[in-house]
Design brief:
Blueprint lengths: L32 E5 L3 H12 L3 E6 L14 E4 L7 H17 L8 E3 L2 E5 L4 H12 L4 E4 L1 H7 L10 E5 L3 E4 H14 L3 E4 L2 E2 L22 E3 L4 E2 L3 E4 L5 H4 L9 E10 L15 E5 L3 E5 L7 E5 L17 H14 L8 E11 L6 E4 L6 E5 L9 H14 L10 H4 L1
Parallel strand pairs: 1-2, 1-13, 2-9, 5-15, 13-20
Antiparallel strand pairs: 3-8, 4-8, 5-7, 6-7, 10-11, 11-12, 14-17, 14-18, 15-16, 16-17, 19-20
Helix pairs in contact: 1-5, 1-8, 2-8
């Protein structure tokens, strides 16, 4: 037999091989808890946008979303993007138009009625001249026509004294009260917590602006609630409309000034469809005084309001009974501009308030003394339509450390 080849000795046994280890999963930071005070257009949308970005959110309101004391109360609000040459406000309005359209189905819409906006311009057309290139640069379509052409299209309108007519195509109106309720429902349905409660900021939070811009490391909290309890969160957003100055008297004070505003609704004759939203756009009259209105639709009447700032107003205890002088002024305007409604009855009247900043721009900023406090307000009579765009902006500031837009920042009002 042939000899077997020599075999090498077996290697000595070694330590058992360790099984391959899975890489450690990155630790996820807990979702920040954000308390939002105020469930109106700014606060409600801020809470919803924060929740959609993963934050744990508690939304509080003293009387409820769109309540009769709130600036967001009312059936309708105009949505338009004409702001003269102000590119910041025009861009914000354009973004809001997009977000209203995108969110209607999620909110159980329809909430936005696109009618266009009929701008009737008197002797001074500087505001509109500055606005047209700004609107077009923002991708928003406008039509220009002569008063004669406009009168042919809308014979129910008298264009006496009108020198120029512009139609903003994407404009229209929003169902305001329905929208406030829809946003709150969506917020709760998507996991947010809503509480009916009044709230005030940390009593130790200073109000005056600091000498430096450094705020890192400073924080405030908890909230003091009306029932004597407190609510602690990581971040606090105050979107309190006309009450913002009272909550932050040293920082804001009368830089947000509530004024009393009256609105009247006229009832067209039975079966008269000329003043419905199928036959007439939202309209703005830029004459000696600025009047604006919303055509009738869905069983509502023909809304008319004077945009002139009224007297100072207490939003908590102020009397909301409309006055005879305001009704007479509205009727005189209607008789001149919409002659067929000259004797129409006033079927509804209400008092709301604007909360005005000196330059009519909003406040969307971090508190100068506390990195975890944000103040949002100063709607100045035209804030409702901006709700989703402001909410998006607030969510990015709170969660993504987006800096404040200077034109909406506090420092412009504190210098």
């Amino acid at each position: 037999m042939a000899a077997e080849p020599a075999r090498e000795p077996a290697a000595p046994p070694g330590p058992a091989a360790e099984p391959a280890r899975e890489p450690a999963a990155p630790q996820r930071r807990p979702a920040p808890h954000v308390a939002v005070v105020g469930a109106g257009a700014f606060g409600g949308w801020a809470a919803l946008m924060l929740r959609r970005r993963g934050a744990r959110v508690t939304l509080l309101d003293a009387w409820g979303p769109g309540n009769p004391r709130a600036s967001s109360h009312g059936e309708t609000r105009v949505i338009r993007a004409m702001y003269g040459g102000d590119r910041v406000m025009t861009a914000l309005a354009a973004r809001a138009l997009t977000l209203w359209g995108e969110n209607e189905r999620r909110l159980g819409g329809p909430l936005y009625r696109r009618t266009g906006a009929l701008w009737m311009i008197g002797a001074d057309d500087s505001f509109v001249r500055a606005a047209l290139p700004t609107l077009r640069d923002a991708g928003l379509a406008v039509d220009e026509m002569t008063p004669v052409e406009a009168a042919t299209r809308w014979p129910q309108v008298s264009f006496e004294g009108v020198r120029r007519v512009v139609v903003e195509r994407e404009a229209g109106y929003l169902h305001a009260l329905e929208a406030c309720a829809a946003v709150a429902r969506a917020f709760v349905g998507e996991g947010g917590e809503y509480r009916l409660a009044s709230a005030e900021p940390d009593a130790h939070l200073p109000g005056s602006p600091p000498k430096s811009a450094a705020i890192e490391g400073m924080s405030a909290g908890p909230l003091r609630l009306g029932d004597g309890t407190t609510l602690a969160a990581d971040q606090y957003v105050f979107a309190c409309g006309p009450w913002l100055g009272r909550l932050f008297p040293a920082l804001i004070g009368d830089r947000v000034r509530p004024t009393r505003q009256e609105t009247f609704v006229f009832g067209p004759a039975p079966g008269d469809a000329r003043f419905t939203d199928d036959a007439l756009p939202v309209w703005v009259d830029l004459g000696e005084r600025i009047f604006y209105g919303v055509p009738a639709g869905g069983g509502r009447g023909f809304k008319v309001a004077d945009d002139t700032r009224g007297p100072e107003f207490d939003p908590t205890a102020g009397d909301r009974t409309p006055g005879a002088a305001g009704a007479a002024a509205a009727r005189a305007f209607v008789a001149r501009r919409f002659p067929a409604l000259a004797t129409a009855p006033i079927v509804e009247a209400s008092v709301c308030q604007y909360e005005n900043t000196p330059d009519r721009r909003f406040i969307v900023d971090r508190h100068p003394h506390a990195a975890n406090v944000f103040v949002v307000g100063g709607g100045s009579g035209h804030g409702f339509k901006m709700g989703p765009a402001i909410g998006e902006m607030v969510a990015e500031m709170v969660l993504e450390r987006r800096p404040a837009t200077p034109e909406l920042g506090l420092r412009r009002l504190l210098s």
